[in-house]
Amino acid sequence: GDRRESAWGRAGAQLRRLLGRLLLRPRAAEGYAGPVAAVVADLLRRLQRQRDRHPQHLVPDVATEFYKFGLEGVSSVLFSSRLGCLEQEMPGDTETFIRAIKAMFGTTLLTM
């Protein structure tokens, strides 16, 4: 294989091991219950608002909402901070960050 691919694979494996040790221990995971519950509550409120506004009571783009939920949840655990992905008006910096992540994932998928 390509050296970049094997280097990325090694770096990714190291990152997964590190995050696993930090985040997946039962005692550590207990500490994330509150922040994650708050993110879940915000997601549910956001989905309800969108459903209430839609003429057929549907959430128009649920995949994007779950993507935002994932980012918000990860940031609340890794950074002990919220990005604002689930707010009615998302901060401009957060929108820029989301676009950058989507571009990064798109580029990564194209190189695989």
Protein model, in words:
By secondary structure, the chain is mostly helical. Helix content is 75%, strand content 0%. It has 5 helices and no strands. The protein has helices at residues 3-23, 26-31, 33-53, 62-78, 92-110. Helix 3 (33-53) packs antiparallel against helix 4 (62-78).
Keywords:
112 residues; mainly alpha; 2 domains
Question: What's the quick description here?
Answer:
By secondary structure, the protein is mainly alpha-helical. 75% of the residues lie in helices and 0% in strands. This is CP27B protein.
Taking all Cα atoms into account, the compactness measure Rg is 17 Å
Oligomer: single chain
Order of helices and strands: HHHHH
Mean pLDDT: 85
Overall number of strands: 0
* Total number of distinct structural domains: 2
Portion in helices: over 70%
Bulk shape: globular
First-residue to last-residue Cα separation? 11 Å
The DSSP helix count reads: 5
Structural class: mainly alpha
Strand content: under 5%
Largest sheet features: none
Q: Unreliable stretches, pLDDT < 50, 5 or more residues?
A: none
GO molecular function: heme binding; iron ion binding; monooxygenase activity; oxidoreductase activity, acting on paired donors, with incorporation or reduction of molecular oxygen
Protein name: CP27B protein
Keywords: Heme, Iron, Metal-binding, Monooxygenase, Oxidoreductase
Family: Belongs to the cytochrome P450 family.
